[in-house]
Design brief:
The protein has about 700 residues and is an alpha+beta fold. It has 12 helices and 40 strands. Helix content is about 20%, strand content about 35%. The strands form 10 sheets. Strands 3, 4, 6, 7 and 8 form a 5-stranded antiparallel beta sheet that branches. Strands 18, 19, 22, 23 and 24 form a 5-stranded antiparallel beta sheet that branches. A 5-stranded mixed beta sheet has the order 25-32-31-28-29, with no helix packed on it.
Length: about 700
């Protein structure tokens, strides 16, 4: 049983076996031998398939007088010289093929030189006076002493393929209903009454007469790259009529403009006269003036007439934003869409190259309303954005844009992201903002933007919907930490270059407690002072001991208004509250300058009497009781008063004891001249202690 490999080998061998034998065997037999007379006898044949084996072809002949001869020919052609035969005898002609494997011979052809004559190529001429296309020709049959035979004629428009020939013509041919202003090409071949047909004549070209142009111009507007609002200035453009529609030489165009306010204007654009308003290329022309809020009508004219006006309104935004699908390469765009049936005239598919000038990098194609695909051909640049838009054209010549999509023939690495900023810095998050990469610098479809704060955390931010400014909040950050954040764009081709920013998050709230505003600190200090004053006032009214936390409000603290020491220190305090409960620096005055003096009870009475307090009998008892209570408090513990004086005296600075003794002696001398009340009060008491009236006011 044959294996699969054996069966495969045998099948290959059977397929190639005939070819192998043909290659290695004798040459194929020549066939279809034909000969004709044209000064010499020309013979042709079919040599058979090319075996790529060197083969020699020889043409043999023999006449009725047994005169023979042969010539070596090419693979399918050979000629017998005129002197080797007579015109009144028949020839027996055959071809023999010889190679290294054998010989093959064609069938023998009996050739009559009288009946196998071939005339020369006919000479064709035209009559330009005729409106229709007509040609005539002359043959060489008379030179061969033969009568005219039938001729074949073929014609085509310039640049087309030759169709099948028409036969049966004698001397002339007329083309009925030619296309206006069209170049036609003609060829003729003829035969005599006997013999074979001549070769085809040279190509003869004739242009038909002009006529009025037909059809309607294909008019559209280049409004650049469309946005949602479609608030653009547009440039009117149209395709040049082909020759079959122009029917002659187009002399110019008429553009009728009707604005939204009802005003109209007619512009005549002449091709012959140079104009900055009309710019024409190989296939298109455009009106080199920007238009807005206008409807147009355009027609082409020649010496024989003009086309029907082609109307168009400014494109407007449609109600829906249906998606269209695009696949493109360097040579063409495949566009498709899926839309429900609509009452419209047709679709228009348009493309526009980003960054190109008016009516440049621009094209459109009209599509039947029952079709949902279109192919636009062109030469599209790599790494360049093309916006493809779909429009619905209504019977009223209005056109609505349905949707647009950006495509690239080949995508590349995007450019760096511009205007990257760090905004709204908080303790655990910040807000980042940037402008999208401009369309001319994208070099591909932006899939997303990547944001990174370190080597581990990378966030992908969608590139759609497209806004003038994009934002992203970077969260889960640590307070008071320095960060380096980066941003880059991403396309199918890869990652763009990074743009970086540095920032530092805010500190924790507890770390800023020492930096409280001055207003808060001042408010707290004033509140504490108010509470202290209130406690002092209540304690003084009820003859209670002041709390331990208010040592600066005891009954032995001097009144600053009478203190020379504090008067000298006033210029060193800028804040009126700074001196409260703040000890004076030692550098100002020494503590030995102070003297604690007790006020005697009768001193208060004398003070009250002097101020007239005791005149009111209704208040005397109450004030007296209050004063007696105050005196008892002052006299309650004389020992404490003495200890207080003694403690104070113990604080006298040692280096001033001598001066102190001298001052004491002077005070004793002066006291003899004072009154009894004045002698009971010391100098310190006069300066610093409150008067009796002030005590009663409290």
């Amino acid at each position: 049983m044959a294996t699969p490999g054996t069966r495969l080998f045998l099948s290959i061998l059977l397929v190639n076996l005939p070819t192998c034998f043909a290659v290695a065997g004798a040459p194929a037999r020549p066939s279809s031998l034909q000969c004709y007379v044209e000064n010499v006898i020309h013979c042709t044949w079919k040599p058979g398939p090319d075996t790529r084996i060197p083969t020699r072809y020889t043409l043999y002949w023999k006449d009725d007088d047994n005169k023979d001869g042969h010539v070596t020919g090419t693979r399918g052609h050979a000629s017998i010289p005129r002197h080797h035969y007579t015109s009144h005898s028949d020839l027996h002609i055959w071809v023999k093929a010889v190679n290294q494997y054998g010989t093959a011979q064609s069938e023998e052809l009996l050739f009559d030189g009288t009946n196998n004559r071939k005339p020369s190529v006919p000479i064709v001429k035209t009559d330009d006076s005729l409106e229709s296309l007509a040609i005539s020709w002359q043959t060489s049959c008379q030179d061969l002493f033969l009568s005219e035979g039938k001729c074949d004629v073929r014609h085509r428009t310039e640049g087309q393929h030759w169709p099948e020939a028409e036969d049966g013509f004698y001397g002339s041919y007329t083309l009925e209903s030619p296309e206006p202003y069209t170049v036609y090409e003609f060829q003729v071949r003829c035969a005599c009454n006997i013999g074979v047909k001549s070769d085809w004549s040279k190509t003869h070209r004739i242009q038909s007469a002009e006529a009025a142009p037909t059809g309607v111009l294909d008019v559209w507007m280049d409004c650049g790259i469309y946005s949602t609002s479609l608030k653009h200035t547009c440039f009117l453009t149209w395709k040049i009529l082909d020759k079959s529609q122009a029917c002659g030489r187009i002399l110019g165009y008429e553009v009728s403009l009707t604005y939204s306010d009802g005003t109209a204007m007619l512009v005549n654009l002449t091709i012959a006269e140079p104009s900055s308003q009309l710019v024409c290329e190989e296939t298109r022309c455009h009106f080199n003036s920007s238009l807005s809020d206008v409807s147009v009508n355009v027609s082409a004219y020649s010496t024989h007439g003009a086309t029907l006006p082609a109307g168009l309104a400014m494109p407007t935004a449609g109600n829906s934003e249906q998606g269209i699908y695009l696949k493109m390469n360097k040579d063409h765009m495949n566009v498709s869409w899926d839309l429900p049936a609509q009452l419209l005239k047709e679709y228009v598919v348009q493309y526009k190259q980003a960054g190109s000038y008016a009516a440049q990098g621009f094209g459109w194609l009209r599509v039947n309303k029952n079709t949902n695909t279109a192919i636009l051909k062109g030469s599209f640049e790599n790494y360049t954005a093309y916006q493809v838009s779909l429009f619905a054209v209504l019977h009223s010549s209005q056109c609505n844009r349905i949707s647009s999509v950006i495509g690239y023939s080949l995508q590349g690495i995007p450019s760096i992201v511009p205007s990257f900023e760090v905004n709204s810095i908080e303790r655990t998050h910040v807000t980042l903002s940037w402008q999208p990469v401009p369309l001319l610098e994208q070099k591909g479809e932006i899939l997303c933007y990547q944001v990174g704060a370190d080597s581990q955390n990378v966030y992908n931010v969608s590139a759609s919907p497209k806004h003038e400014k994009m934002t992203f909040q970077l969260q889960h950050l640590s307070p008071g930490q320095q960060y380096l954040v980066w941003l880059r764009a991403v396309t199918l081709a890869g990652f763009g270059a990074k743009t970086t920013k540095t920032f530092k998050t805010k500190e924790e709230e507890g770390n800023n407690s020492s930096k409280m505003p001055l207003v808060i600190v001042t408010s707290i200090v004033l509140m504490v002072i108010g509470i202290g004053i209130g406690i002092w006032y209540v304690a003084s009214r009820e003859n209670k001991q002041l709390p331990w936390f208010l040592p600066c409000w005891n009954d032995r603290v001097p009144d600053p208004r009478n203190s020379n020491i504090f008067k000298q220190m006033t210029h060193q305090f800028s804040d009126s509250l700074a001196w409260i409960c703040v000890p004076a620096p030692e550098s100002l005055h020494k503590i030995s300058q102070l003297e604690v003096v007790e006020m005697l009870p009768h001193a208060l009475e004398s003070c009250l009497t002097e101020q007239g307090v005791g005149d009111d009998s209704s208040q005397t008892d109450k004030q007296k009781n209050h004063m007696d209570h105050a005196i008892r408090e002052l006299d309650r513990d004389g020992t404490e008063r003495r200890l207080g004086r003694q403690d104070y005296n113990k604080m006298i600075d040692s280096d001033e004891e001598q001066d102190r003794e001298e001052e004491k002696g002077e005070m004793e001398e002066d006291s003899s001249s004072l009154s009894e009340e004045e002698q009971l009060m010391s100098g310190y008491e006069k300066h610093f202690m409150p008067t009796a009236l002030e005590v009663l006011e409290v």
